[in-house]
Structures are given as C-alpha cells and as structure tokens.
Amino acid sequence: MNGNLRQWLNNGSVSRLRRWLQGLFFLLLVYGGQLALNLGDQLPTFACVFNRARGGSCYLMGFQHQMSIPVAQLFSGRGIGVLVGLATFVGCFLLVNKAWCGFACPLGSLQDWITIFRQKMGVHYGSYGLATFARLSKIKYLLLALLIMLPMAMGNAIAGLPRLSHDFEVPFCMICPGRTLLPLFSGDLSQLVVDFSSQTKLVLSALGMMVTGLFLIGSLVKRRFFCLFCPMSALHYIFSKLALLRLVKAGGKCTRCGNCYRACDVGIHAIADDVESPNIVKDDCMLCCKCVEVCPEDGCLELRFLGLPLYTATAGGFFRRQEEAGRD
What we know:
Oligomer: single chain
Structural class: mainly alpha
Number of helices: 16
Shape: globular
Radius of gyration: 21 Å
Number of strands: 3
Largest sheet: 3 strands, antiparallel
Order of helices and strands: HHHHHHHHHHHHEHHHEEH
C-alpha cells in the first residue's frame, strides 16, 4: 500500500466511518425489505424475522428451527440443509469476523445511540470489575447452549425425557429484544404483548418483555450492556480464530497505559493486560477498533485482512485525533 495512503488511513478516525456504516446497515437490515432488498437468511447479525420490513434474516432463527429435527434426519437430505445454512453463516462471518457486531448489528447500534443520548444528558456510566466481567461473559454461552438444546428436545427424547412442545421452537427469539424493538421502527407494535395462548408462551413472552426492559435500562447504565449476554457473540467466537479480518497486538510495544481498556465499550481487560497473544480478538470483542484509535504506540495494535495491514496504531495518528477531539 502507498505510504501516503497508509499515513492518511492511520491518521483517520475509524469511529467516524463506523457511525456512517452503522446507520447504513441499520437502514438495510431494518427497512431493506421495503425496497425488495434481501441480504440473506443466515446473517451473522440480528435482522429480526418478526420485522416484516427487514432486509435480511438473523441466522439464529433458522438455526433454532433446524435444531428441532430428529437426530436421525441430520443424516438425510434435511441434514444437508443444516450444513448449507451453517456454511453460509460461517462464510459470511469469516469475511469480517466480529466486525458484524461493531459495524452492522442493529441492536448494537441502538445501544450506541442510547449511549450518545446518555452522554448528552450528562449521565455517567458504570464499569465492570474483573471478576464481575468474567462471570457475566459466561451467560452468553449458557444461552447459546439453551437455544440449541431446547429445540432439540422437541424432536428428540433426550435422556429418556418426554419431548418438549412446539412452543419451544425458537426459545431465544421469544426473549430477544430484537423481536420487540426492531419492528417498532416500522410502526409494528404487535410484539409488545404477553402471549396467553399457552403456559410456555406466557412465560417466554413475559421474559421477553423483561429482557427488553433490561436492554433499555442496562444500555443507559453500561455501554453495550446486552452484548455481554449475546449468544450470537458466543457463536461468533467459536469461528473467530479462522476469520480473515484480525486485530493483532505486538505485546513487546505495549506500555500498558490502559487507553485501550478505557476506550473499550465492553470493558475487555485483556486488550491491555495480554502481551502474549498476537491475535487479540476476545469473545466479547466487536472489532470496533476504538482500541487502535487510542493507542499511542507505533505498531502496537493493528487491524489486518489476510495478513495485510488496514489500520495501525501510530503516535502521529493518536495525537492528531486528540487534537480533533479537542476542537470538537
């Protein structure tokens, strides 16, 4: 890459680009259907099927449906459909890694906009202690396990137990804040209800309303609050080490100033503390690159695609962005 172009990129603000892309993806994923746009049905980000105006569909919905088939059918033609869906999801994900979370996810963008509102109101946010952070980060793996096991228990008698009713077909969707919030942007209030048609639906839909309230309140108190519990993020991390886009750290250049940790929206301590791992994408990372922006050490943090540098921490870029922030 040309030296002048590299310098221009490294001196620039990826956060400014990210804000524009978040707005674009929000329009595509929430309203794209009104323009007959469909980005696919196995997207590695939230695009809720309960929103009729959507421009694509979240993979988790179809994944839960597929998990409800009998295990024996996984070795039939239906099993091929499961593999094709998973391969499509993984292929889309591997292209840009967890940047799906930082740049494309409508629920992530909503949380960032709530944070901007909170800042303008002068409300201070809280931070996580290391032990609390570690405990909270495990919840998304529990939710991922449940969204697989509950649908499986519909089509299979697990451990000799009776099969679950079809009300458990998409358990995570029933409690996901995307189901209740994203349709609102199309004027659809139909998901803001508690379903009394069965006891299971009553419990799940009531939990969904509670989770929506926690999403809104938590986002006012913590940056990217819901992302710590997101099973999509857990599914991402399983494949993240194979992705083409990576965040790389040269630990020998790190002075542990803590700028990266303080800038991190989800409070990842390891981004500052880990000086051993070259691939620094952790399970809660969303590849927003704020850490690269605030790093003052030349070449300490770098975003790479197929091993080629795209955005590198430099002292010059750091001080230039600080000057621009001061003028703003």
